[in-house]
Every structure is written in C-alpha cells, then in structure tokens.
Amino acid sequence: MVAFYVEQGAVVDDANAHRETPLSCAVYWALNGKEQIYSTDHHLICRMLLDYKADVNSRDEDFRTPLHKAAWNCDHVLLNMLLEAGAEANLMDDNGCAPLQYVLKVTDVLQACCSYPRAVEVIVNTYEHIRCTTKWRTAIPDDLFETYRSFYESLFEACANTPRSLKHLARCAIRRILLHKCHKRIPLLLLPAILKRYLLLEPEGIIY
What are the ANK repeat spans here (predicted)? Predict the structure, then answer.
C-alpha cells in the first residue's frame, strides 16, 4: 500500500496533527507494547519510506525524531536502518534528550540491545564522550559479553573517565559543522575512502 499511495501522489513526509510523518509513526508502532514483539511489516514500511526519500530527521510536536522513537523502543533493526540512512543522533527533543539517552539510560534497555553492537557503536560514536557506569556491564549477559568481548571491552575503556582519542574528537568537530548534511558532504571531501567511512560512522567493531 505504501508504494501505491506514493505512486498516486501521496506526500511521503505529510504530517498528522501531532506533526508526525508516516516514517515517525511506522517507527513508533513497530513495537507491540503489550506483546513486546517487533513487527517486521513495520520495518519493511520504514525501509520503503526511506527508499522514497522520507525525511529521516523529521521532528514531531515534541521535537522527537524517528531515531528517538526507535531508541525508546530499543528497536535495533530500526536503529541501524535510520542511522545508515543519515539520522542525526545528536538532535535533542523538548526534554533535552538525545536518542542515546533513551537507549542507554536504563540497564534493561542496554540488555535488550547488547547483542547488536553495531547499533551501540554508531550511537556512542556520535558523542565526544560518554561516561559508563558499572550497570552497563551487569546489563550484558555473560554469554553475549564473551561473544562480543573485544567490542565491549573497548566500549568500557573508551567511555571511562578519560578523553576519547584525538581522531575521534576531530570527527565529532567535523560532524558538528556539517550537521544533517554529513551524508551529502562527506562523500565529496577530498579524503581517502577509509577516512570518509570513519567520518560517516561506519561500524568497525571496536571503539577507541
């Protein structure tokens, strides 16, 4: 039905009374709160809307983006999808919260996402520095910690009470200047491909 309506002239970013776009609604309702299961149909709808150039950083009446809602639901599939489509993880809602604060503010949410370190890595790397707590480790089951030991050890070390690497701080400064234009401007820079991928936050499996 998404394809049908768009082909018939529907505006992909047309908002409802709460300033929610179809993408924002699809992201939010991808989680069945009662059953605590994710809808693959909603994931597919989100993918189609993004393919039709839906605004990945649209803001509703509470200034929440689709990424805020995916983070609130701890939907690792949509977190990856939205970030890869250019979602800005630094945008604040009207409570002054960025998406990461919804993802990692409680241990049970981290536990739900810890088997998908790529999503955690991309979001953490959008911030200059985040200080971890002992609750982060206790939220990760031992078997998953062992499976992704190198990643999580690098996460805890990078998020200790010390500055991140100069390379990472330079990346944050560049992305702060470019803001929502990162995914358009960075590919045009006269830089080696490996540095472009680094600036675009492509996961490396380790944090430093």
Answer: 62-94
SS3 174: helix
What's the DSSP call for residue 181?
A: G
Please give the Cα distance from 175 to 157 (Å, whole number).
23
Consecutive H or E run containing 158: helix 149-158
CATH architecture observed for domain 1-91 = Alpha Horseshoe (1.25)
DSSP letters of 91-137? ---TTS--HHHHHSSSHHHHHHHTT-HHHHHHHHTTSS-----HHHH
Per the structure block, which two tokens stand in for 51?
Answer: 């393919």
Query: Could you read off the pLDDT of 161-193 as tens digits, one per residue?
Result: 677 889 998 998 888 788 767 888 999 999 999
Q: Check if the beta carbon of residue 47 is closer than 8 Å to that of residue 10.
A: no
Query: Helix (H, G, I), strand (E, B), or coil: what is residue 42?
Result: helix
